[in-house]
Prior knowledge:
Layout: E1 3-5, H1 14-18, E2 24-26, E3 31-33, H2 43-47, E4 53-55
Antiparallel strand pairs: 1-4, 2-3
The protein binds iron/sulfur cluster (2 copies).
Amino acid sequence: MAYIINDDCISCGACEAECPTSAITEGDGKYVIDADACVECGACAGVCPVSAPNAE
Ligand code: SF4
Ligand code: SF4
């Protein structure tokens, strides 16, 4: 299962650069993860200042 970014996201953009599969893009009010591209590496969760990305 893919990681999902919750509503705590402050759109800082830090996770986008860390994703090895470029699964993260800026969405409407928060960043979003393409579930089909996510390989569950956890890198996004590791850099997020507000712990918004979580494994489902
Ligand atoms: Fe990208 Fe890894 Fe986060 Fe999935 S868990 S969105 S592959 S950084
Ligand atoms: Fe949002 Fe966290 Fe990604 Fe920043 S690192 S854009 S707060 S999910």
